[in-house]
Design brief:
Layout (H helix, E strand, L loop, with lengths): L2 E5 L21 H5 L14 E3 L9 E4 L2 E4 L7 E3 L6 E7 L6 E8 L14 E5 L29 E9 L5 E5 L1
Length: 174
């Protein structure tokens, strides 16, 4: 089992799959019945901690229902719970010049210190022209171009890691 890791600046984690309007950071009845879990309720960071730590640094705050890194030294954060296969759905925005990501299959038992050294990363970044390092890319592995909106605009992302044949994993992201 592994943890999901968010680094640098992630602003809001929401679930919305049926298109109906409802408050942010809530699950629909259908999502709850399908087994979705809310990772962020828009009020507290209770389900999160810093990478390789038991608590979360105070630079991570909830502001207007969003997870916000308010200053330097906040460090990467991970879910307290562990997940094998998952279907992660979220909304995010990034500031001008921002550079962040969603890492998965994070291994905290490694001798390496930083999560980007030990896990794949879905890039969240102020968009620019290098497809394998721009927003929406699987950083350094699979490129994306023109998938993110401009700075300050909200983007929707889905990352699906599902069981495949013979014990392999199938990764899809959009």
């Amino acid at each position: 089992m592994y943890r999901l890791c968010f680094c640098v600046i992630l602003c809001s984690l929401t679930c919305s799959t049926d298109g109906s309007p409802r408050p942010l950071n809530t699950l629909s009845e259908r999502e709850a019945a399908q087994g979705f879990q809310l990772l962020f309720d828009g009020k507290s960071m209770d389900q999160w901690r810093n990478y390789r730590a038991e608590t979360i640094n105070p630079q991570w705050q909830v502001i207007d229902g969003a997870m916000v890194l308010t200053g330097k030294g906040g460090r990467d954060i991970v879910t307290k719970a562990q997940y094998g296969f998952f279907d992660l759905r979220l909304e995010w925005t990034i500031a001008k010049g921002g550079n962040s990501g969603i890492m998965f299959r994070v291994d905290e038992q490694t001798s390496k210190r930083l999560p980007w050294m030990v896990a794949p990363e879905y890039q969240l970044k102020d968009p620019y022209g290098k497809p394998r390092k721009s927003a929406g890319a699987l950083y350094g592995l699979a490129g994306a171009s023109d998938v993110a909106k401009g700075c300050g605009e909200w983007n929707s992302t889905r990352i699906l890691l599902a069981p495949g044949p013979n014990g392999t994993a199938i990764l899809q992201y959009w």
